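Can't attach files on this board, so I'm pasting raw text. These are the components:
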Amino acid sequence: MSLILEAENLCHKFGRTLLFSDLSFTLERGDVLVITGPNGSGKSTLIKILSGFLHPTMGKVCIVKEGATLGPRNYFHAIGMCTPEMRLYEELTGWENLIFFANLRGTQDTQDRLREALGFAGLEKARNSLVKVYSSGMKQRLKLLLAIFHAPPILYLDEPGSNLDENGIKFVAEIINNQRGRGISVVATNDPSEYAYGNKKVSLAQ
Amino acid sequence: MHMETKKSPLRSEVYTVFVKDVKSELRTKVAANAILLFALTTLFLISYVIGPYRIASADQPYVLSAWLWVIFFFSAMSGLSRVFVKEEETNTAIALQLAARPEAVFLGKFFFNLVLMLGLALVITPLYVILMEFPIRSVYNFGLIIFLGIVGMTTGVTIIGAIVAKASMKGTLFPILSFPIIIPLLLAVIEGTSMAARSASFGQTMQTTSVIIAFTGATFVLSLLLFDKVWLE
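---
Top answer:
Structure tokens for the assembled complex are below.
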């Protein structure tokens, strides 16, 4: 099954401030793109553009899956995403959040498999606690789990290691390694230890 | 870990969004408290200050119908936009946008608001009829008009709530946008309610009922067609 993510001459401005210009790259199944750059250089903005949440000032993003071109916003079903802006339903438990998104995504799995997924994220013991009492690291693990549990062909991770302990960092590494066999990963990070995940790199300068 | 996914049917997504909103509301009670407290406060204020005896009996069907819908309208204003505003304010909208079809989000939230407003109508209407000694000739017609009016108002207010949730001045914008859109419906339901209070004949309220149904149908279809533009902006 072929999968290509192509960014062509991307340029983005906020008002008169130019974030980046003439950014082009092509990613294929198995690729991990690492986006680096100082704060304010546009890493998160680039993730938003690639995921279809933001229109670039110029240029285009094209996703070709099994020969069919998907336009922006037609590929939400094919995306897994974890960004610092995203939040979970704090008045629901971790388990209820997982079941909610599993039902929306149409995950054909039993509750045992979903419980196993929570165990994979190290959250089995906290499954019935409200998300509002989770630590920031536990919230990050649950967000990462919700980004990958439906096995998306394209995975966007913005600062995936933030707030995570040593086991959490291993969890991120396992996610990215698993994704290599499934599709494309795009990781925006400032953490030098995460640069090694990528086989391709985009450096944004301020 | 590798899980199989198959796009779930629309009705299943609608039900999932609806149940999530009910569960959230039962735990936070933000919207229910807002609309119920507003409605009860206004109702008791009207019944205490005006009461049933300060209105001439010939004017009662018109004036009492108008007051009843004023209570419903402003109660809806105080709580129904929460379903969308909360998603934006708590930054849960992104995950929902990725996982659910826009029409499932709209319908799930519409049904949640509808249940909230019908619940409010079930509490407020009997209290209002008793406290204001509202004379109703046809309870059946009266109930039908209230039901249709609530469905129409909920449709309009839900889509406006979605638009307003994207704006920065949410509190002010909601009633400003709602007022001109809901006005034609309010005029029809007030007329229909007063007719049902005056006459027992279904035929006499038929024209007004048709206007309410047409308005509701048009608003509902347009909302469904426009919602993805509003939701994904």
